[in-house]
Design goal:
CATH topology: Arc Repressor Mutant, subunit A
Number of strands: 2
Strand order of the largest sheet: 1-2
CATH superfamily: Winged helix-like DNA-binding domain superfamily/Winged helix DNA-binding domain
Helix content: 55-70%
Structural class: alpha+beta
Oligomer: single chain
Strand content: 5-15%
CATH class: Mainly Alpha
Number of domains: 1
Number of helices: 4
CATH architecture: Orthogonal Bundle
Length: 83
């Protein structure tokens, strides 16, 4: 699996059971803790995923990540085909 898709999978796994997954926010340290990539590589994944329309990066007091509806649909479709 291409590394950015592993990052998207982590984000999806974190929010998929929330009542409104595309409104959930994730702090980067939670993503880092669940991956074996260095932070600078994860940042590149997140930038690419944002360009693809799968996540939205927002700077609050600290940066947060949220899965877009497109990212949610993409990962849900991948989960069905992977089964």
């Amino acid at each position: 699996m291409e590394n950015k898709w592993q990052t998207l999978q982590v984000i999806y796994d974190l929010v998929k059971n929330d009542s409104n997954p595309s409104k959930s926010i994730i702090h980067p340290n939670v993503i880092i803790a669940r991956q074996n990539f260095p932070w600078d590589e994860i940042v590149e994944h997140l930038k690419e995923l944002q360009t693809d329309g799968f996540v939205m990066l927002t700077q609050l007091s600290t940066a947060v990540v949220s899965l877009t509806n497109e990212g949610l649909q993409h990962m849900a479709a991948r989960s069905v085909t992977a089964s």
